[in-house]
Specification:
The complex is a heterotrimer of chains A (318), B (300) and C (309). Chain A is α/β, with parallel strands linked by helices and 318 residues long. Chain A is 33% helix and 27% strand. Chain A contains eleven helices and 13 strands. Chain B is elongated, with a radius of gyration of 23 Å. Chain C has 13 helices and no strands. The chains are: A alpha/beta (318), B mainly alpha (300), C mainly alpha (309). At the B-C interface, helix 5, helix 6, helix 10, helix 11 and helix 12 of B face helix 1, helix 5, helix 6, helix 10 and helix 11 of C.
């Protein structure tokens, strides 16, 4: 069995928050991400969904080592990179790249598009300056922008065009893993579809593995192979995309699904806005005998394997 | 479109530049500010005078060629009269511009050179580095620059280099704060995150992304440090602990002029006016630049 | 609030210590003491005796602690330039002219500056606005001694209306007071104008106008109150500017105040006098900081209820 392109094992992030006075501060911990484990197999797109504040962006940034995890492991092609120093990490940086939500602040306003797209080559000291520019212009074409855009500055572009540039910059090093942090949520609907199509095409061409972070479930449904649902810093459900949409087990996942607007009034579901309490009471109770993998019975919810590719947070009974 | 240079040596015109950049609007704002534009024009004239001083004056600045006519009033031959030591006063004033402006510019350059790295460090790394740098700045702001400069000037007995040093010592604070604020605002931007994700070192990010994006505050800090340094020089020279004679300095001349002002008014009027005009023009120019480049007006 | 003030006092003490050590070291690191470069060279024996008498032959840190111990008893030593009296005695005579002239300058300059700034903000781009901005730029950029020189040249030399210098008769005070008033006037004109403009552009003012409130009530009840907060923060730069400017004003007008003693102490390397002045000035500035921060906290309801800065 080959190692997955990206694997997170028990990743946690705790932020200290001051609760006491200024003179004698006391600190409490805010747990932003709590023991998240997930796998992005090679050549697959995994969706990471959840409401804002659920810790999905923090998880994505930790996977990139842009935020240091408090504990847990990050594996790229089976190698743990969570403890590597700056220099040792650098070769792995070539294998994983990121696209951000806000395309405006993602591009340095003082640099031309050609410089922006060529920057990864520059940082990694690949090719001559001329070849770097040539490669950058080629990538601009590949993401659907004319070569003449190379001389332009980010403020001259539309949001969709800027996001194309950001994608070109992320992919010019030919990474194997791409973390896409809500790349479409700041875009108009029509532009959104174009960017999704572009990502899909490039993924197929390059055999990319993508961790696609989004709260837009309709996009997730059309793009991803597997969906991981996060709630309050924890993974509450993980299943193949269609299984999530058709047979989700966790109450939080269902409330997310209920929030999707539907096209026809006939299909209109009852919209439920569920509080944390109702979600807590709705957590499924499963018997240990029904599970695909062994689990210890306990009164607190734990992530259990229902079928080989469907995991859900549940209370396990004997 | 290509980056190539055309045969005439001028960059190929870029027809794709239909959208106007932030610099264009900054220029528009600046050029509609009359005070700033006139300040800039006066400053250019003063700089030209200082640079071409030997061409527009009759004698060397320390030549006592007119001792017989010492203290003569302004005339057609001697525009600003003759000073108490028989030197052409116009020459002295023009060379005074040289001293004043060169101290202003060099000190401002030094301020920028100290202020940029410290400001960038404080803004980028935050935490302990920021704390230390901010405490240093706090120390500098409790002691007013003029007093400290007087003390330092008194101890070192002045001199060109000392004054530049003192002015830079107090001028970097403002540059540092401006750069720090800008870097702080930009370090959370996602293009910085993207560079980090590429494995760029902090120094690379500071050099390539954060400092170029701080050009506006750096320019403003530079220009506004100039009048500060000129003021310091004039004040110290006025107290007799600045640039030593016979190097002409307006502050020094005002001090001399004070002793003669009731009878030979020209010795007091011209250096006073020269200093006031120069400092005023530079400040108006700098204020105009700041308003034009102000990031809060950029319409982000 | 009390905790906050205590914290600030501690930090003032630290700053004061650092500044005093730095100044002390600086002044003693210079080659040449008060007896060098004089008109009358002293014999080595006399010199050594004098140095011993003044404690200048001991190691530096001992000198420093001796000195600071004296300072706590308000004993700043004997000024070298007039050995007949103590530093504190000399300074206690000197502060009165400074306080009178500086105080009157601020009392006259600040209100005029505020009125000018208000008028400028309410009538933008009128001659009033240009006058206020012009005066503000002039006062804030041109060194005080240049302003003083201009005043003397115009009113004393050219028009011959007022005496140029001295101390005693009230008419001699007029020009120095105007010179002292320049910085408060300029500072307050500039900041009042920008604070008022800021407030006038806030949405809540538009709402008040839409409600049909009279312009007068909008200005006096709402805009002024909201503009007052940034104006308090200006107190400090104004204070520092006026205080440093006093040195030059007093030198120009030959007023026997603290500033002129500062100049003469610097020119004659009078360590005890210089140290005393620097320490007093530092302390003054530290407390000016504290006062302006406290005022700010008291006036700003957001900070007051939040309990932290």
């Amino acid at each position: 069995m080959t190692a997955p392109a990206l694997e997170l094992r028990g990743l946690s992030k705790k932020f200290p928050i001051r609760v006491g006075g200024r003179l004698l501060p006391r600190y409490a911990e805010h747990v932003a991400v709590d023991g998240v484990s997930l796998v992005v197999p090679t050549n697959r797109i995994v969706g990471l969904v959840g409401e804002s504040g659920s810790g999905k962006t923090t998880t994505g940034l930790m996977a990139m080592r842009l935020i240091e995890p408090t504990s847990g492991q990050i594996l790229i092609d089976g190698k743990d990179i969570s403890r590597l120093g700056h220099a040792e990490l650098k070769p792995f940086r070539r294998q994983m790249q990121v696209v951000f939500q806000d395309s405006y602040s993602a591009l340095d306003p003082m640099m031309t598009l050609a410089q922006i797209v060529a920057e990864p080559l520059h940082i990694h000291g690949l090719m001559t300056a001329r070849a770097q520019t040539e490669a950058a212009l080629g990538w601009l074409e590949r993401v659907g922008l004319d070569r003449s855009y190379g001389q332009r500055y980010p403020h001259e572009l539309s949001g969709g065009q800027r996001q194309r540039v950001a994608i070109a910059r992320a992919l010019i090093l030919r990474p194997s893993v791409l973390v896409a942090d809500e790349p479409t949520s700041a875009l108009d609907v029509s532009v959104k579809a174009q960017i999704i199509n572009l990502l899909q095409d490039l993924q197929e061409e390059m055999g990319l593995s993508i961790l696609f972070i989004s709260h837009d479930l309709s996009v997730v449904r059309s793009l991803t192979d597997t969906v991981v649902v996060m709630h309050r810093g924890r993974v509450v459900e993980q299943a193949p995309t269609e299984a999530i949409f058709l047979e989700s087990r966790h109450p939080y996942t269902r409330s997310l699904l209920d929030a999707i607007p539907v096209l026809h009034p006939r299909d209109r579901r009852r919209r439920t806005f569920q509080s944390a309490e109702t979600i807590a009471t709705g957590i499924p109770r499963l018997s240990a005998r029904d599970l695909a993998a062994p689990a210890m019975p306990s009164a607190t919810p734990q992530l259990v394997t229902v079928t080989p590719d469907h995991r859900v947070e549940a209370i396990v009974t004997a | 479109m290509s980056v190539e240079i055309s045969e005439t040596g001028a960059p190929v015109a870029a027809p794709v530049y239909k959208q106007r950049g932030p610099l264009y609007f900054a220029w528009r704002r600046f050029s509609s500010n009359k005070a700033a534009v006139s300040g800039g024009i006066v400053l250019v004239i003063l700089v030209a005078m200082a640079v071409f001083a030997p061409l527009i004056t009759k004698t060397r600045y320390d030549a006592q060629d007119f001792l017989g006519q010492a203290l003569a009033f302004p005339s057609r031959e001697f525009w600003f009269g003759i000073d108490d030591l028989g030197r052409d006063f116009f020459t002295r004033i023009v060379y005074g511009a040289r001293v004043s402006l060169s101290i202003g510019f060099i000190a401002a350059a030094c301020s920028v050179l100290i202020g940029i790295p410290l400001g960038a460090m404080a803004g980028y790394f935050g935490g302990r580095a920021d704390w230390i740098i901010m405490r240093i700045i706090e120390l500098f702001s409790v002691v007013p620059p003029l007093l400290a400069a007087m003390l330092l000037g008194a101890i070192t007995r002045g001199g060109f280099a000392t004054i530049v040093l003192i002015a830079a010592l107090f001028g970097w604070v403002q540059v540092c704060l401006l750069v720090r604020a800008q870097v702080k605002a930009f370090r959370e931007k996602e293009f910085v995150r993207a560079a980090q994700a590429l494995g760029a070192t902090p120094w690379y990010i500071i050099r390539r992304h954060l400092i170029p994006n701080s050009v506006s505050p750096i320019i403003v800090g530079f220009v506004l440090a100039i009048p500060l340094a000129m003021m310091l020089e004039a004040s110290l020279s006025f107290l007799g602990i600045g640039v030593p004679p016979p190097t002409p300095s307006w502050g020094q001349m005002i001090n001399t002029g004070m002793n003669f002002m009731f009878f030979y008014w020209h010795l007091a009027v011209f250096p006073t006016a020269a200093l006031a005009i120069t400092v005023l023009a530079t400040t108006l120019f700098g204020d105009g630049l700041r308003d034009a480049l102000d990031p809060t007006l950029k319409g982000r | 609030m009390i905790l906050y003030i205590l914290r600030r006092l501690v930090s003032i003490a630290v700053t004061f210590f650092v500044v005093s050590v730095l100044v002390f070291l600086m002044m003693h690191s210079v080659p040449g003491g008060p007896f060098d470069g004089n008109d009358m060279p002293l014999s080595a024996a006399v010199r050594a005796k004098l140095m011993a008498q003044l404690g200048l032959d001991q190691p530096l840190h001992v000198q420093y602690f001796n000195y600071m111990a004296g300072v706590l008893r308000l004993d700043f030593g004997v000024p070298y330039q007039s050995p007949g009296e103590t530093v504190i005695g000399l300074l206690s005579r000197a502060w009165l002219p400074s306080l009178v002239l500086g105080g009157l300058g601020v009392l006259i300059g600040a209100p005029i500056g505020i009125l000018l700034g208000m008028a400028a903000a309410l009538k933008r781009n009128s001659w009033m606005d240009y006058l206020a901005s012009g005066l503000a730029t002039l006062g804030l950029t041109v060194p005080v001694f240049v302003i003083s020189m201009g005043l003397i040249l115009i009113f004393a030399v050219w028009l011959n209306w007022l005496p140029a210098s001295g101390w005693g008769k009230p008419e001699r005070w007029i020009l120095p007071i105007i010179a002292f008033a320049a910085i408060p006037l300029a500072t307050y004109a500039r900041y009042t104008r920008s604070a008022m403009l800021d407030t006038l552009n806030k949405p809540f003012v538009t709402v008040l106008r839409a409600k049909g409130l009279s312009e007068r009530r909008i200005i006096f009840q709402h805009v002024l109150r909201n503009s007052a907060i940034p104006m308090v923060t200006v107190f400090l730069p104004m204070f520092i500017g006026t205080a440093t400017g006093s040195i030059f004003v007093e030198a120009m007008f030959r007023v026997p105040g603290l500033g002129s003693y500062f100049v003469s102490s610097i020119q004659s390397r009078d360590y005890p006098l210089e140290m005393a002045l620097v320490l007093m000035v530092t302390l003054m500035f530290c407390f000016a900081y504290l006062i302006s921060d406290i005022l700010y906290a008291l006036l700003n309801p957001r900070i007051r209820t939040g309990g932290r800065r």
